[in-house]
Amino acid sequence: MKTLLLTAILLITLLNVNAQGLGELVPPKPLEKFPANAWGIDVMFSEGGFGLGTFYRKQLSGVITAFTDISFSEAEDPHEFTFVDYFGNTYVAGKINRAFIIPLNFGIQYRLFENVISDNLRPYINIGAGPSLVLSDPYDQDFFTAFKYAHANYTLGGYIGFGANFGLDKNNLVGINLRYYVIHLFNQGIELLQGKYDKDLGGFFITLNLGTMY
User: Are 161 and 129 in contact (CB under 8 A)?
Assistant: First the structure.
């Protein structure tokens, strides 16, 4: 968790497109008008690894935006430990199955401090929910070969998050979002480690948003 928070701080620093004006307190003024639609990709980082997704956003008012997103990432048991052998090969002791989560979410994003902070830093909170597909496949098979033996689990999930969009560019969207996903299986769960079945496969994700506005 500490690593994820440090990564978030680093990403925010790198995305500081106008350091002298970012977050500067300003008197109330009309909100900067940005294009109502946005589409792009999500680059996701979690303790379970790396993920990718895509999103579409539709601005409904100056502070409210509706969105939908879908992503693909790997989930891990918190007790997994990766070993490296003499030849440089990696493996997880006792691992039985891999698990991949594919959530489709619909939600609302609410902009914060719109008349307090300058428009090149636009913080928000967001919440989304929808169906989730959880795939599991055998760990003792090659990564791609194992998908032939994949088993599908269907459930509902969602997330709550806090993030910000950066810059005044009205063509390109750059932002970061810290999310906590809740994805719970209502069956016996997935045996990620031998003898241990996991039903809760969500967790914290740092998401880098890159897209276009139109």
Answer: no
Cα separation, 1 vs 178, in Å, equals 12
Partners of residue 65 on adjacent β-strands: 59, 109
Tell me the per-residue pLDDT of 143-162, one tens digit each, with 9 for 90 and over: 899 999 999 999 999 999 99
- Which pLDDT value is given to residue 20? 43
Q: What's the pLDDT tens digit per position in 31-64?
A: 678 999 999 999 999 988 889 999 999 999 989 9
Would the pLDDT of 27 be above 90? no
Cβ neighbours of 26 (radius 10 Å) = 11
d(CA 122, CA 190): 39
Q: What's the Cα-to-Cα distance from 154 to each of 70, 101, 129, 132, 157, rounded to whole Å?
A: 15, 10, 14, 6, 10
Q: Which residues sit opposite 170 in a β-bridge?
A: none
Distance between CA atoms of residues 38 and 58, nearest Å = 7
Question: d(Cα 99, Cα 74) in Å, to the nearest integer?
Answer: 6
Strand ranges (E), the chain: 37-46, 49-59, 64-75, 82-84, 90-92, 97-111, 121-138, 151-166, 172-183, 190-193, 196-198, 203-213
Euclidean distance between CA atoms 155 and 190, whole angstroms: 13
Q: Is the pLDDT of residue 1 over 90?
A: no
